[in-house]
Amino acid sequence: MRFRTTTLMLSSAALLVLGGCDVDVEDKGKLPEVNVEGDAGQLPEYKVEKTQEGRLPDVNVDAEPGRMPDVDVRGPEVDVGTKPVTVPVPDVNVDLPEEQDNNPGQQ
After folding, report:
1. Tell me: the pLDDT tens digits for 22-70?
2. Which phi and psi angles does 14 have, rounded to 5°?
3. What is the pLDDT of residues 6-23, one digit of tens each?
């Protein structure tokens, strides 16, 4: 029991000391350059050797061919109500300029 208490106290003290440290990175470091060459879409070559004979299990299925079971599915009743809503629409007045006969672009 005394060993556990001592270990717990030392671990707690170490966490406090390490947690209160401010670490400055002097050298950011660099990942190594890796050159991987290969043709796109090519799988590696491999050799498969059969070590023993296998067989599928026997399965008996009793069913009528081409007949699905009859299913009666009832969904929940949904009552969708509507109520009239009046939406205010802004009144827009557009003043068009009067046509001028002296406009050389129109004929």
Report:
1. 667 777 778 788 777 776 777 777 788 888 888 888 888 777 677 777 7
2. -65, -40
3. 888 777 777 766 666 666
DSSP 39-95: -TTPPPP------S---PPP------TT-PPP----PPP------------------
Collapsing DSSP to helix, strand or coil, 38 comes out as: coil
CA distance 9 to 15: 10
pTM (predicted TM-score): 0.20
DSSP 26: S
Hey, what are 47's tokens? 């050799």
Distance CA 2, CA 8 (A): 10
Q: Token match 């949904």: residue?
A: 78
